[in-house]
Design goal:
Elements lengths: L1 H42 L3 H9 L9 H12 L5 H12 L4 H17 L3 H4 L1
Length: about 120
């Protein structure tokens, strides 16, 4: 009976050790993700995000094609970072407003179809 109890205690100890390692890894990943989000929060929107907000504003009745295509031109001529643009579009898609989500998806489709340098720099 004593050996069986020791085996159970040892098995439980191994589970705790493995679980502790996994928890430590998840905490590390969460902290680094949170520090990025905190940095992003305190810095505020950059120029690219401001343009994305303008072209996906909830006050627009329809997509702003001129601004959408201008953004594609800016990416193609390396005036803005495509990674920042995609990050800004993602933020707008994650909002609860369906109008903003729709305009962000239209912008994303426009970028994917019209930007030559998107895949190479993202």
């Amino acid at each position: 009976m004593s050996d069986n109890l020791m085996e159970k205690v040892s098995a439980f100890g191994e589970k705790l050790k493995i679980g502790g390692t996994e928890v430590g890894q998840k905490i590390s990943a969460g902290v680094s993700s949170m520090s990025f989000k905190m940095k992003e929060f305190f810095q505020g929107p950059n120029q690219t995000e401001k343009i994305v907000e303008k072209t996906t504003a909830e006050t627009l009745d329809e997509p702003d094609w001129a601004t959408n295509l201008e953004l594609c031109d800016m990416i193609n001529h390396d005036r803005i970072n495509s990674v920042e643009l995609i990050r800004g579009i993602k933020k707008r898609i994650m909002l609860k407003n369906p109008r903003v989500q729709y305009l962000a998806l239209v912008l994303l489709e426009t970028v994917v179809k019209n930007c030559e340098k998107l895949c190479s720099s993202a």
